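Proteins fold reproducibly. Next comes a concrete instance:

***
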Amino acid sequence: MSTATISMSSTKTAGKKGARRWLKWLILGPILLVLLVQLYFFVMVCWYSVFNPGSTSFMRQQLSELREKNPKAQLKHEWVPYERISVNLKRAVVASEDSRFAEHGGVDWEALEKAYERNNKRSKVVGGGSTITQQLAKNLFLSGSRSYLRKGQEMIIAFMLETVMSKRRILEVYLNVVEYGRGVFGAEAAARHYYRTSAANLNAQQAARLAVMLPNPRYYDKHRATNYLVRRTALIQRRMRFADLP
């Protein structure tokens, strides 16, 4: 066999090896990237199990939007510990948003199935059946976009939260970071914004109304006396005594 033939054969072999390496990285690269992202989320969940988050993905996004119109805009947000949040608000939020909060492991599969059926009927994602834990995952790390890909990531983070944090800590963080209106985040800011009181002093009716506002807080900030809001508030008030708290 001539030297030229051997050289060509070696080149082809090297080329095949190089192609296989590229193919391997094309397959393994995205997998590695996904794993690194999940590791980041897990590390942050561990951090938030001990330290209070100064801001969330939702907060940063909304502050950016507000500062497009007003560069000096600031969010209304003040962290208060679990003990300084009214039991009325805790019960109202659980009764309105996630009645099985104390029981599930982060995801309420029955609620998800019902939401999936509703979405299929309307041929679009109109509701997610999210638990409080899932909502916290979304608020801390994700966006408000509606897609099954984001929903999947939300569920993964929810399982992380339930694994690392107690139910009490999950509810504490949620109540302190959830949006209550444009630029208004957390129970303390909401209590002062709507009722000029503290989160600790919210009565049953006030708490029920704040809980009902959660799915669409910016709308209800501007429309505070709709028939739906009044009816739903009365219903949640009746359900509050049955809500199980951590």
